[in-house]
Amino acid sequence: MKSVVTTGRTVEEAVTSALVKLGVTRSQAKVRIISEPVKGILGWIGGRPAQVEVSIEEKPDEVVLRLMRNLFDRLSMTAVVRCSYHSESDVNELMINVEAEEDVLPYLIGHHGNTLDALRNWLTLAYNKQMRDTSFSTVKINMDIGNYREKRKQKLIHLADIAAEKATHLKKVIFLEPMVAVDRKLIHEHFQNRSDIRTESEGKEPNRRIKIIPVDHD
Question: Could you tell me the fold of the domain covering 3-56?
Answer without folding.
Answer: Defensin A-like (3.30.30)
